[in-house]
Each structure stands twice: as C-alpha cells, then as structure tokens.
Amino acid sequence: MVNIMQKIYAVCEKALQTGDLSKEEILLMLNCPDENSDIIFQTADIIRKKEVGDEVHLRGLIEFSNFCRKNCEYCGIRGKNKTIERYRLTEEQIVDTAVKSEKLGYRTVVMQSGEDPYFTASRIAEIVKVTKEKTDLAVTLSVGEFSYDDYKIMKDSGADRYLLRFETSSEELYKALHPDSDFRERLQCLQDLRALGYQVGSGFMVGLPGETMEILADNLLLLQKLDVDMAGIGPFIPNEDTSLAGENGGTLINALKAVAITRMLLRNAHIPATTAMGTLDPKGREMALQSGANVVMPNVTPQEYREMYLLYPNKICLTDDPAHCRGCITGKIHGIGRTVSKDHGHTLKHR
Ligand code: SF4
After folding, report:
1. Which of 43, 53, 91, 126 has its CA 20 to 30 A from that of 254?
2. Greater confidence, 325 or 112?
C-alpha cells in the first residue's frame, strides 16, 4: 500500500507540471483506494485554480423536448419507453425561457432535447437566431447527431457551442448500449462540430455496466485526444424504465476521480459539476467543484415540464423554480469560497 501511495503522490506531483500522463499513471489514480483519494482531488483543485481561477460559470439548462427517436439502453426518455409523458416546448416558450434566464443573471443557456424529429436543424436555427436577437446570451446546443450540413445551419444561426458526449470509448460497449448509433459516426459528428467552429463539449458516464478501469482510462485519454473545450462526466444511474434497471450504478468517488484526472489532462477546459453527482450525494456538486470542476448547469426549464425529463431517477431540484435554483446554487458556490462568473464563460483554449 505504501508503495502504491508513493507512486500516486509522484503522479500527482508530475500532474502539477504537465497533463502528459500515461495510461498506467491514470490507472494508478483510478485504482487508488477510495479512503486515500484526497491527494488526487487536492491536486486537481490546485490545477483548476491555476488554469481557470476561482470563478464558477453557470449555464442555464433548458430541456425543451423529451421526445427521442433513439433508444440508448441507459436513458429514461428513450423512444420505446411508453411509461413517460412526452412534452415539447413551443419555439416561443424556448426563447421566452432563455430571455428569463438572462434576467436571472445567466450568460449562457444550454438548449437540450432528445433527438426529436420535430426539431429540425432549421427550426433549431430559428430559435437560436431569435434568442440571439433578443439577448446577449451564449447559446449551447445539446440536441444529438445531425449531418455536417445541419450542424452548419445551426452554427450559421449563431450557436456558439455544442455538447455531444461519446459516453464510452469502447466501441464494443458503445454498440451494446446504443442500438441506433455508431461509435465512428459519433466521433465524426464531434470532428464536424470542431471543423465548423463550435466550442465542443463531450464526455462520458462513469460506471456503465461492462465498463472496466481500462475503459475508464481510455475514456479520459479520448477526451484529451479530442481536446474538448468542455468535458462533462457523470455517474451512471440506473433508470427503472430501461433494460439496465437492475444494474449497479457508478459511484460518486469514481466520478470525482474522473473529474479530477480530466482537470489534470485537459488543463483549462470547462468541466461541469454535473447534476447526476448532486443526485448521488447532496454535496456531490460541491465536491466536484473542489476536485477540478468549474461549471454548474442549473435547470431553468419551466417547472411543469421538469419531472418529464428524467434521464435517470431521483434527479435533484425538480420542484424548484429557476429563481430559487439560481439563489441556491450561488449560495453553495460562495459557501466553498468561490465566485460566480459574470462573463459568458467561452472556451479558454486558443486554437
Ligand atoms: S441518451 Fe439522448 S439520444 Fe439516447 S435515448 Fe436518451 S435522449 Fe435519446
């Protein structure tokens, strides 16, 4: 044990200087006994402070449709789930929610949905265009896989950023979990987004059934290879309406380790403390913010629709109104000695 800890201390020491860590070094940290993992979190926190500072960026999350044509095995809003009520905000409601978010002090909104055929690239582009005309918000889209030409239509309308997680770097596991998607196509989408000038976010789930520590290390290295502007990592939480209902979920500690190592590898990327971490532990998001994260994405979706966007169970803040969320999260951020950013929080990468 002493020997392992000495090696982990040495890797952390190295990580303070460089993000050039080997797979073996990453595996050492992933396999660090949970009770001794603080050194990994503290190291990531030092790098976070040096690379991106103490400010936390808030992104207002608008979940505007829970219709989806796909059937990802882990997802509560997969198309074949007949037990949930479906909803779709109107174009006006989406823009209106964005306008209200800006009034609450947000500088970015994330417009997210399932892969809903109603929302074509042109419809989404129009929503972005009107939002940009009415506000000074940065707009992030998280609406799934489209063709290069469709991504271009949305980019030309003013969209700044795009989130598309690869979820796992194992092609085999990806195939097992995504009956309607292809791993190579997903990577192509990420390349297209980058080529079009989006600030690109990607990421993965921790603890998917069939995931090994080797795969988790490869997930981290793939994020680094993609050189993403934003890296979203959350624990897998089994949903009872899916085929993975009886599986074990990912643990908070492993998700925190993944966040910390992401900070070591990607240096100045934006990394959210995800809602899924807050679901596993009331202090989960604060713990992530102290382990390398610098972004929080409070839900600004109108209250009456929130319970219908259940990707996983027991999601937090479902009954809180957006103004309450804004105040609550600001209190949590101040509580750990950090500040809320007043700027757009664009990428810090220079390309
Ligand atoms: S993960 Fe996304 S694409 Fe897959 S079923 Fe859920 S909403 Fe649809």
Report:
1. 53
2. 112
236 C-alpha vs ligand 1 centroid, how far in Å? Answer: 14
| Spatial distance between the Cα atoms of 228 and 193, rounded to a whole number of angstroms | 11
68 CA: nearest ligand 1 atom: 8
Ligand 1 atom index nearest CA of 69: 8
* Three-class SS state of 10: helix
pLDDT for the residue numbered 320? 73
Predicted pLDDT at 1: 65
| Helix spans in 250-321 (H) | 252-266, 275-280, 284-289, 303-306
Angstrom distance (rounded) from CA 282 to CA 266: 27
pLDDT at 213: 97
Least-confidence region, from 105-114, 234-243, 306-315:
306-315
77 has pLDDT over 90: yes
Domain residues for 264?
2-340
User: For the domain that residue 245 is a member of, what is the CATH number?
Assistant: 3.20.20.70
Residue 109 has pLDDT above 80, yes or no: yes
What is the reported pLDDT for 53?
Answer: 98
Residue nearest to atom 2 of ligand 1 (CA): 114
Residue 305 located in a structural domain: yes
Residue type, 345: G
Instruction: Give the residue, out of 63, 112, 115, with the most ligand 1 atoms within 8 A of its beta carbon, to mutate for a pocket test.
Output: 115
CB 278 within 8 A of CB 39: no
Using CB distances shorter than 6 Å, the residues near ligand 1 are 68, 70-72, 75, 77-78, 114-115, 144
Amino acid at residue number 49: K
Q: How many domains, in total, are found in the chain?
A: 1
